[in-house]
Write a structure and sequence with these properties.
Layout lengths: L3 H12 L7 H19 L3 H13 L3 H13 L7 H13 L4 H11 L7 H8 L25 H8 L4 H22 L2 H5 L2 E10 L4 E11 L8 H29 L12 E7 L5
Antiparallel strand pairs: 1-2, 1-3
Helix pairs in contact: 2-3, 2-4, 4-5, 5-6, 6-7, 6-9, 7-9, 9-11
């Protein structure tokens, strides 16, 4: 089990100054991200990259998170996981816990040379500690080791390889879902808010997603009730379809190892909404 990635993390944390965005900076950062995303959707990559560089120079943590995602997925830039990592760390240091979900998902992924130590380290630090999700097999280190990198790595080195493989798989899938479903961007894209419940049967493998009460946000002025209900159904349906697409991609991305108990059931839920300013 490699621990090199955790050493890189430590160096990154030392090298990056602690940054906490003010409300004003956060608002400007979100606006910058929205403009960059618009350029990406219009396939104006040169403009998107130029705006990205401007936002990074201004220290917007939201833009750092987007930069990490762009390098992580090869959007308007050449895919480069090693370049994505410091942007994600910067965003996490600025208070964006969803960056930890993306780091955990990336470090668990085979295309990046799966590093279970780094995946588990960041899985413990996301919006939800996915290492302790309900029904999760024993994938959490002791409390004494959770925040001490040396003890963390030393404890993992005592785990059997089969346990490490199972935990890497579970953390990868759960962190990818948390990053892409729990992160409000997907909800904002469909103008909805609400609750998503997840049931993950890793031995099958199968993911069941259930939408709870969904709220439609009418963003374009006053419309009559029938049209609100009609558009709300379309938005909720579109969101549900997109969320299920994320689940399917997560199952394809991470190879399922042997040794998972057939009765393992991992559950969690997310609550999200759209913030207006």
């Amino acid at each position: 089990m490699a621990s090199h990635a955790l050493r890189v993390v430590l160096a990154g944390l030392i090298g990056l100054s602690s940054f906490h965005a003010t409300a004003e900076e956060s608002r400007f950062g979100r606006n910058a991200v929205s403009e960059i995303r618009d350029r990406i959707q219009m396939r104006h990559c040169d403009g998107a990259v130029a705006d990205l560089k401007t936002g990074l120079k201004k220290g917007f943590v939201e833009v750092a998170l987007l930069a990490g995602s762009m390098y992580d997925n090869g959007i308007c830039v050449k895919r480069d996981w090693n370049r994505a990592v410091p942007f994600y760390i910067q965003a996490w240091q600025g208070g964006m816990k969803e960056a930890a979900d993306r780091l955990a998902a990336g470090y668990a992924a085979p295309e990046n040379g799966a590093d279970v130590a780094a995946a588990l380290w960041w899985g413990h630090r996301g919006n939800k500690d996915v290492t302790r999700a309900k029904g999760m097999p024993d994938c959490a280190v002791s409390p004494a080791a959770a925040d001490d990198m040396d003890r963390f790595v030393a404890e993992l080195q005592t785990w059997p390889q089969a346990r490490l493989a199972v935990c890497n798989y579970l953390i990868g899938v759960m962190s990818m879902l948390s990053a892409e479903i729990g992160y409000p961007t997907l909800a904002a894209e469909y103008n909805v808010g609400g609750d998503v419940s997840l049931r993950f049967l890793p031995a099958v493998p199968q993911i069941d997603l259930r939408l709870g009460k969904v709220r439609e946000y009418p963003l374009f002025g006053l419309i009559d009730g029938d049209r609100i209900r009609e558009r709300g159904a379309r938005s909720a349906g579109g969101f549900e379809g997109a969320a299920r697409g994320v689940a399917d991609r997560a199952l394809r991305r991470y190879p399922r190892p042997d040794g998972i108990s057939p009765d393992t059931l991992v559950t969690t839920d997310w609550h999200f909404g759209i913030r207006f300013e």
